[in-house]
Amino acid sequence: MKLIREDLLSDIALRIESVRNHMRDMHVDAVLVASNANIFYTTGRFFRGYVYILLQGSPVWFVVRPQAFEVQDNVVGIRKPELIPEELKRLGIPLPSIIGYECDDLTWSDIARLQAIFPDSSHVNGSGVLRAARMVKTPWEIGQMRFDGIHQAEVYRRVSRCYKEDMTDVEFQIEIERILRLEGCLGYIRTSGNLMEINMGSVIAGDNADAPGPYEFTMGGSGVDPSLPVGANGTTMHRGETVMVDVCGAFNGYQTDMTRVWRIGEIPELAYRAHECSRNILRECERMGVPGAKVADLYDKAVTIARNEGLSQYFMGHNQQAPFIGHGVGIQLNELPVVTSRSRDIFKENMTIALEPKFVIPHVGAVGIENTYVVTSSGLDCITEFPEEIQEL
After folding, report:
1. In what order do the strands lie in the sheet with 98-101?
2. What pLDDT sits at residue 69?
3. By the 8 A CB rule, do 347 and 295 touch?
């Protein structure tokens, strides 16, 4: 089995060097990667096992499954992680003085087991090293996300064809998901943290937009079952309501995030006004989001615009309001930075973020848009191009 395509090799090297730069900042001389997302980030594919990264030299892949990899100097088959120190010694690689583990991404028992195999090393939380590295995307990663944005937009062009009168929101979402899969979507959304769960996205109609949920999403929705209380809830969609579509853009291991709004029949002027306010917020954020700008300033600007328009009570929810207007996106849907007033992050070139200033109008539904952007020297470059106006079903 070929480990990695040739066109990825140089890009993987850039990612590893980014990880090492953040290791130096934390004074860590090794990190042991074990989570799905970070194995994919550091190798360009997924396997069950570990990636051992030192400040110097090639990373070592310790592969548990599958055992069909092409033999290379930096690939070692193991049955269990306890064999890692022995294999490092065999390869002539010194054991670490200070080693970082993904304490925010693995279970307590996983961390305890990994720490036990390096009893003479100092142990630190290395999750921040990987998260910081992944905030700034490489050229190849941005190319993957631009590809996603093109295909996600192609799906949205066919959304209106999925609608039939007296459909439920679940039936509508199922038809959209069918188009997603036929377009090439992988059919899952990889999220960060054990408190975030979602299916292939959210289709939220009418008052369901006002249903508060337990997850850190801008829009809730009650879902169809208490085991996954988010998104479409099975109610029939009616005239006078909006339908917000925020579905999966994962076509290649990376993701884009895009939301658009449709209406059934006529809706109140307030809904149109709030929707235009969302667009105005994005135009301001696009201008402000340059390298060196404070992430928190975008949130503060959005709050100010909504307040000046007299829309604060509807902004980022009505019954329950979200304390942010956007987030990093890439391998996982919810990466750093989080666009909130508490953020201390500074924009860097080639960060990728999704901005989603949204409003909930009681008895009408959700309005507002979401786009995914690349941070450039001239501002935020949208990679989810699709008409932003409220469209009719």
Report:
1. 75-77, 60-65, 48-54, 30-33, 98-101, 122-125
2. 65
3. yes
